[in-house]
Each structure stands twice: as structure tokens, then as C-alpha cells.
Amino acid sequence: MAYPKGISLTCWPVGQGLFTQFDVYAGDATFRVVYDCGSFTSGRGSPLDGAIRLLRDRPIDLLIISHFHYDHISGVPKLLDVVGLPRYAWVPHVHPQVCILQVIAVIADATLAGLSFPEYEQIALLAANPADWLRERGKNEW
Question: For residue 87, which phi and psi values (nearest 5 degrees)?
């Protein structure tokens, strides 16, 4: 018996930023990968917000964060709030001194995007220490 196989790729149109979803089909199983989740324009009513809501149908098996620029991670807190924790997560290792620079860059970009501190606090904490940020939400498998 032949099992259907394939890959569906969605590059969500979120403006400046990146939010890509891969669904890999192998027989009756589907494996969902989200690669980055961010946009320079985020928040209620943004294209990013709408795209995130469309992913509520299934859990994420693997979340990959390529790097910690605001326009690549600004939607991650909302994504996890809406869809739930991924089964696995991959984040790049960053030297602690570089994390400080990442946080400064995220704060600068969030400010340029017109967000206040409560709105970008979780994004800054994610950039500061992604492993701890995910662990605090219950993600212990890597």
C-alpha cells in the first residue's frame, strides 16, 4: 500500500520579517515545522497576527529560530500562546555577551515599531535567554 508523501510550504506574507511553515506528510502522519515567527509590524490586526491564528489547527512539532532579530522573533510569544508549545525547539547558541547586544537591538526595533515595554517584554526576554524563556513555559525537551 502506498502512503501519500509530500511537503507543503507556506511563507506567510508578514511584511518585513520572516514566518515560514512547513508541513511534511508521510502516510497518516503530518510533521509541522515553523521557521522563525516575526515581522517588523506586529500586534493586533497585523498580517502576522492573522497568520498565527490560522495555525491553531495543529500543534507545532519543531520550532526553529534562525537568529534573534526582532523581525524574526516578534511573533513567537503570541504563536506559543495561540498554538501551544512546540514538541521540539531549536535555537542557536549565542555567547552571553552577545545576548546583551541582541536585547538592546530588540528594544530599539520594538521602540521603532511603536511598542511599549509591556508589549515587547517577552520578546526581549526571549532574545536574552531563549532556553530559559522556553523552559519557563514548560519546554524541557530539546
Answer: -65, -45
C-alpha cell at position 73: 522573533
Whole-angstrom distance, CA of residue 131 vs CA of residue 120: 18
Q: pLDDT tens digits for 47-89?
A: 898 899 999 989 999 999 999 999 999 999 999 999 999 999 9
For the whole prediction, is pTM greater than 0.70? yes
Asked whether 75 and 104 are in contact (CB, 8 A), the reply is: no
Q: Is 24 in contact with 60 (CB distance < 8 Å)?
A: no
Nearest CA to 106 among 125, 133, 92, 91? 125
Which residues have a Cβ under 8 Å from the Cβ of 14 and sit 6 or more positions away?
Answer: 38, 39, 41, 46, 47, 48, 51, 75
